[in-house]
Amino acid sequence: MSHNLVATLLRAYRGPRAALPVLLVLADHASAQGVAWPCVRTIADRCQISERQVRSHLSKLAAGGWLRPINSRKGGRAMSTRWQIVANPEMDFRVSDEIPGSAVPPSRPETRKPASINPEVGRQKPGSQVPPKQLRINQEPLSEVPPKRERRSAAPPQVTDPAFEDFWAAYPKKKAKSDASKAWQKLHPDAALAEHIVMQVKRASKTHDWLKDGGQFIPYPATYLNGRRFEDELVAAPKVTSLTVAL
């Protein structure tokens, strides 16, 4: 087990997150040269996953450059593969020559020419030089454009209908004027009907139903309009006559 290798992997790992436990188990079984060959079942038991998931994670780690298969040897029912752990794929260190049959000749360092952007096609071409102006543009950070604030339109001024004001002035129970205004707009009476409604309200104010108990049974203005109560037949309040009894 190499504690330095595990610590290095925890700092430098940038691969799939689900495959990290598999890589750490290999590092736990690795030799001083970073070579490990535990069987798939051992890795599955340590990670508490299926063997199929272990093989999938091993393939992803190998594709990402974190593992490199060296050779295979018989182990149990299947083939146990030797894995070279690459703590940093960019550095790409390999097995030393101390392990027989596992040495890998060092590869030549790749020399890459600085890439630049061709302003005509917008792609990078190796070997071309970047113009000074284009270089400065590429190095400048993109500034975030603040979102535009939506202007809230002012609420249109409420226009009061003179006919409704006449109705409101004549109605004895002045409650819920906003609801009454909405009911008036919904009814949308013409001049003749508006005049008739006001006259009916004045007549209803003298009836027994609206006068008894201090006007307790007078409907709300909105209820009066929505129910078209101005079409009701009104009964005038009975006249009280005084009787003089001669003794």
Beta content: 5-15%
- How helix-rich are the residues, as a percent range? 25-40%
How far the N terminus sits from the C terminus, by CA atoms, comes to: 131 Å
CATH topology of the domain at 3-85: Arc Repressor Mutant, subunit A
Global shape: rod-shaped
Low-confidence stretches: 93-106
Largest sheet: 3 strands, antiparallel
What does this structure look like?
The protein is of the alpha+beta class. Among the domains are: 83 residues, Arc Repressor Mutant, subunit A (Orthogonal Bundle); 70 residues, no CATH class. It is built from 10 helices and 5 strands. The protein has a 3-stranded antiparallel sheet, with helices on one face. A two-stranded antiparallel ribbon has the order 4-5. Helix 6 packs parallel to helix 8. The radius of gyration is 46 Å and the shape is rod-shaped. The relative contact order is 0.07. About 6% of the residues have low confidence.
